[in-house]
Amino acid sequence: MIVGSLGKTIFGCSSFYIKTINDLSGDKSVRWIEHEVMHGKPKLQFEGVALDELKLNIHLNAAWNVNPTAAKEFEDYMKKGQKLKFILGSRVVGSGWYVITSMSETYKAYTSLGNVSKMELSLSLKEYN
After folding, report:
1. Which of 29, 38, 64, 114 is most buried, most CB within 10 Å of its CB?
2. What SS3 class is residue 25?
3. Phi-psi category of 96—alpha, beta or left, where left has phi over 0 and alpha has psi -120 to 50?
C-alpha cells in the first residue's frame, strides 16, 4: 500500500516492505515589522504570512527490505535545491511544494560487517512557492 511520496521517493508498507513517515509536525507563522517610536512603545505592522515549515522522520530498516543508504536520495534533493511535491494518502500536504532545508541521520544498528542496517532520518522542509 502506498502511503505517500516526497518528490520521486515513494513511502509505502506491505508484509515485506516498510518505508514510512513518523512524527510529522508543522509550523505556521506570520511576519510582523516592529517600528521604533521615540519615547514610546514600538508599533507593529502586519507584513504577511510566512512560509510553512514541516519536520518529519523516516525509518529506514534493511530488515523491511529498505536499504538505509536510501538516505542519499534525500541528501541529493537537498544539495540540488530541488522543489518536491509532498503527498500523504490521497491529498497534497499544504501548498504541495517543499524544499529540504536540513537533514540529520541517526544510525541505529549495524551488521556484523559494519554496514548500517537501521537508520532514522530526520528532515526539515520549507514551503516553496
Report:
1. 64
2. strand
3. left
How many of the other CB atoms lie within 10 Å of CB of 61? Answer: 17
- Could you tell me the three cell numbers for 64? 523491511
> Could you report the per-residue pLDDT of 87-124, keeping only the tens digit for each?
998 899 988 899 999 999 999 898 889 888 899 999 99
Q: Cβ distance 82 to 99 under 8 Å?
A: yes
Q: 94: exposed, middle or buried (C-beta count within 10 Å: 0-12, 13-18, 19+)?
A: middle
Give the global pTM.
0.86
| 126: its cell numbers | 520549507
Cα gap 56→48, rounded to integer Å? 26
Place of cell 527490505: 65
C-alpha cell at 36: 521604533
